[in-house]
């Protein structure tokens, strides 16, 4: 499990970030079922995914406010 770097995410386009967000949401959904069934082998992965989703959403939000303000 490689640690993501926010500066690497900032270089991606909005479409790439949205696609990555969709993939992470699906993985998070599947991990929820694994946790509820007691089959989760890597509980730290859930925390990692949550943080990466938050980082992507923050970057997307900052991009949208930059576009709206015209900077």
Low-confidence stretches: none
User: Total helix count?
Assistant: 3
Overall, the morphology is elongated
Determine the structural class based on helices, strands and strand pairing. Answer: mainly alpha
The overall average pLDDT, rounded, is: 86
**Which CATH class applies here?**
Mainly Alpha
Helix share bin: over 70%
Beta strand count: 0
Cα distance, first to last residue? 36 Å
**Architecture (CATH level 2) name:** Orthogonal Bundle
Structure summary:
This protein is mainly α and about 70 residues long. The protein has helices spanning about 5-10, 15-35, 45-70. The longest helix is centred in the C-terminal third of the chain and has 26 residues, at about 45-70.
Could you walk me through the main structural features you see in this protein, from its secondary elements to its overall organization?
This protein has 71 residues and is mostly helical. It has one domain (6-69): Helix Hairpins (Orthogonal Bundle), CATH 1.10.287. The chain has 3 helices and no strands. Helix 2 (14-37) packs antiparallel against helix 3. The chain starts with 5 loop residues before the first helix and ends with a helix.
List its traits.
71 residues, mainly alpha, Helix Hairpins, 3 helices, elongated
Which helices and strands occur, and which strands form pairs?
Blueprint: H1 6-10, H2 14-37, H3 44-69
Helix pairs in contact: 2-3
